[in-house]
Amino acid sequence: MNTAPLHTLSVGTAGPRIAFLHGLFGQGRNWSTIAKALAGPSGDGARCTLVDLPDHGRSPWTQEFSFEAYAASVASTLRAVDEGPWVVVGHSLGGKVAMTLALTDPSLVAKLVVVDIAPKDYVNLDRFTGYMDEMQRLPLGELRDRADAEARFEEPDPGVKAFLLQNLRREGTSWRWQANVELFVADAARGQHSVIADFPFAPGDVEPYAGPVLWIAGSESRYIKDEDSPTMRALFPRVRQLTVKGASHWVHSDAPAVVIEALRRVLAAPA
């Protein structure tokens, strides 16, 4: 199991420890706005650690995807900063990693916040295959500069385009993807056997996580459904749900003020 240190960014100098985990093709810095707000102008509101998950950003790549391995890498990285326990926040893929961490290493997680994802099998990665195809089609060897990459990249949604192209990194005169695109493409090719689309535990497989859990959903997202609640409550008995009106799957980008206030309340509440 790969437990190599992951790349992190730190925001804040004092206050409770809070770690942020991003989604597929994201990076820790996607949480910068939220982290800076929680830390406050003097930096003493919270000590935030923004993690690049394995196969993302500046963190090491792996040979095979595993939620348990991802969680172990996050655990060793956080413990190298502080033995904890930590408040752990995860969105989408990062939410599944955060839930896995809480279930397998509960002593490290004081409180858990899961953003717009459920502990279930989403069957496949079809919703991401178009993005992966676009990333593979981009002729990295021909790119002159980032503007050229933006012009050639065929994603019509400017927000999605910017999100995906944050993974493009220039090294000298060549370009490469920071995200381990080939690994994700291979997992997507498994179809209904995708590991990333699945979740490693079902009720009864592990002891439920005993800490408090905030489950944030976007009202315009399809990632969390009413029928997901029994499984979520079986694995996380102290869960409470917050649905953010008008927000899509990227809740923290669509409604940062709401998410910031919710996280402030989580930090202030007793464990």
Write up this protein.
- The chain is 35% helix and 17% strand.
- With 271 residues, the chain is of the alpha/beta class.
- The protein has a seven-stranded mixed beta sheet with strand order 1-3-2-4-5-8-9, with helices on both faces. A two-stranded antiparallel ribbon has the order 6-7.
- The chain is globular.
Helices, strands, pairings?
Blueprint: E1 8-11, E2 17-21, H1 32-39, E3 47-51, H2 67-81, E4 86-91, H3 93-104, E5 109-115, H4 126-137, H5 146-152, H6 158-165, E6 168-171, E7 174-177, H7 181-188, E8 213-218, H8 229-235, E9 239-244, H9 251-254, H10 256-268
Parallel strand pairs: 2-3, 2-4, 4-5, 5-8, 8-9
Antiparallel strand pairs: 1-3, 6-7
Key descriptive features of the protein:
alpha/beta; 7-stranded mixed sheet; two-stranded antiparallel sheet; 9 strands; globular; single chain; Rossmann fold; 271 residues
Question: How would you briefly describe this protein structure?
Answer:
Keywords: Hydrolase. With 271 residues, the chain is of the alpha/beta class.
Strand fraction: 15-25%
**CATH superfamily label of the largest domain:** Alpha/Beta hydrolase fold, catalytic domain
What name does the CATH topology of the largest domain carry? Rossmann fold
Q: In CATH terms, what is the architecture of the largest domain?
A: 3-Layer(aba) Sandwich
Number of helices: 10
Total tally of structural domains: 2
- Give helix and strand order, one letter per element, not per position: EEHEHEHEHHHEEHEHEHH
Q: Tell me how many strands there are.
A: 9
Structural class: alpha/beta
Query: What is the CATH C level class of the largest domain, in words?
Result: Alpha Beta
Mean pLDDT: 95
Proportion of helical residues: 25-40%
Radius of gyration, taken over Cα atoms and rounded to an integer in Å:
18 Å
Low-confidence spans: pLDDT under 50, at least 5 residues? none
Distance between the termini: 31 Å
Identify the overall geometry: globular
Spatial order of the strands forming the largest sheet? 1-3-2-4-5-8-9
The biggest sheet, with number of strands, parallel, antiparallel or mixed sense and barrel status, is:
7 strands, mixed
